[in-house]
Amino acid sequence: MYDTGRFDEYGLNQARAQQPEYDGWSVGTPGDHEPSSHSGNGFGAVPPLAVPAIPSPLVDAAPVARSSLGDGRTNADSRTVPSPPTQAVPTLDGASASPQPAVSRETEDPPLAQEAERAVRILNPSGEITMPRPAHRRVICVANQKGGVGKTTTAVNIAVALALHGNRVLVVDLDPQGNASTGLNVPHHAGVPDVYDSLIDSTPLADVTQSVEGIPNLACVPATIDLAGAEIELVSVVARESRLARAIQGCRTEYDYIFIDCPPSLGLLTVNALVAAQEVLIPIQCEYYALEGVQALTSNIALVKAHLNPELEITTVLLTMYDRRTRLADLVEQDVRAHFGEKVLQAVIPRNVRVSEAPSYSQSVMTYDPGSRGAISYFEAAQEIAERGARAEGVGVK
Ligand SMILES: Nc1ncnc2c1ncn2[C@@H]1O[C@H](COP(=O)(O)OP(=O)(O)OP(=O)(O)O)[C@@H](O)[C@H]1O
Ligand SMILES: [Mg+2]
After folding, report:
1. Is residue 292 part of a domain?
2. Which residues have C-beta atoms less than 6 Å from ligand 1?
3. Same domain membership, residue 101 and residue 15
4. 39 is in which domain, residue-wise?
């Protein structure tokens, strides 16, 4: 018989004892602590588990204060993890990040009355609330080669939020998984005309575009299983990196925004998206290894910019799946803000169960539960994207 007690006594505890003490990246187990404020302080009395350092050059370079107490306590015990910066933070490109005002990032859903009020603001049935429309079409590629960081969720929900507030929006599903097509409830079974036909057979984008039911200003170019072969088939096609760019340039429908949902890789499909876009939106999950691979992505973006698409800029970074109960989430946020500066949206997407439930009902969280924290946060993020774009006259606009 397996003795869990013995395992706990001799296995787990031993393993814990053998872990090196961690110098500033410790987190408590969920439920160990009071809900933390944004500054990441406020943990309870239970000693935190030590966790390995994030093996990322970006993280390692982060200006996180690490005290050596020399008395056997971890930094977590002494609550010495720094608060978010209140001074301007230098970034790699020499820009300065302004102090960030507090933004809503509660994980729980709000009380009913507020929820109803917010739902009306988000669904905007009267059409009274508008987000500024850009002077020119903005093509935004949502990319991060790390899987499951919220690319599709971000593309779908921001597109829906913009469409519900007066913008004409197209989502191009460039991932053979077809998750964006599912999230928007657009048929994408085998045989449906899809983005593959535009990429490989030069079918006009308008011929493979479907309108999204229930959201008048929103359309989607779906991805079917055919797209799985495109990565290989594209290798032998003329102008293989710019097939999507040509399809989008040839699209005469007047969209304010085109969002391209990329697969979790840096292959030819993602390169096509980077060549077709003027802007890159990078969702970064507030988790372990969040920044790992971001450098590979940014150097790929630099290569595409140098050789194929001089207009390309990383304009937006969005923190996703923020869990306010963990100090790690705060630390990742500080790192990302220190690295990307003002490109990081002030809106942060919390980990919220409504967001993860929505796709199983073939919906965005905006329509599935418009009063939820997840919907509110994506609404705020979309608003920021629209307002920043409007302010940045001519920047990232074709
Ligand atoms: N804020 C959130 N709160 C809770 N769950 C979330 C949140 N954002 C995304 N998820 C869930 O996390 C999973 C991964 O999200 P998503 O599919 O958007 O990531 P992705 O980067 O597009 O993944 P892939 O790399 O496979 O394309 C999904 O199950 C999604 O429902
Ligand atoms: Mg995806």
Report:
1. yes
2. 147-153, 175, 177, 179, 264, 320-321, 349, 351-352, 355-356, 359, 374
3. no
4. 1-83
Atom of ligand 1 nearest to the CA of 175: 27
- Residue 148's nearest CA partner among 116, 175, 127, 117 is 175
Query: What confidence tens digit (pLDDT) does each residue in 25-61 have?
Result: 333 333 333 333 333 333 333 333 333 343 333 333 3
Q: Indicate the number of domains in the chain.
A: 2
Residue minimizing CA distance to atom 13 of ligand 1: 148
Same-domain status, 36 and 182: no
Q: How far is the CA of 1 from the centre of ligand 1 (A)?
A: 39
The CATH number assigned to the domain holding 113 equals 3.40.50.300
Domain annotation covers residue 202 = yes
Cβ(270)–Cβ(143) under 8 Å? yes
Atom index in ligand 1 nearest the CA of residue 321 equals: 1
Residue whose token pair is 């814990």: 16
The atom number, within ligand 1, closest to the CA of 359 reads 31
Task: Note the helical H segments in 288-348.
Answer: 294-307, 327-340
Return the minimum-mean-pLDDT range out of 47-51, 197-201, 224-228, 378-382.
47-51
Residues 313 and 359 in one domain: yes
* In contact, 291 and 58? CB cutoff 8 Å: yes
Same domain flag for 40 and 124: no
In this structure, is residue 232 part of a structural domain? yes
Residues 72 and 136 in one domain: no
Q: What is the pLDDT of residue 109?
A: 60
In a domain, 213, yes or no: yes
For range 326-341, the mean pLDDT: 92
Token pair 């009071």 is found at 34
Measured distance CA(156)–CA(160) in Å, rounded: 6
Ligand with smallest separation from the Cα of 156: 1
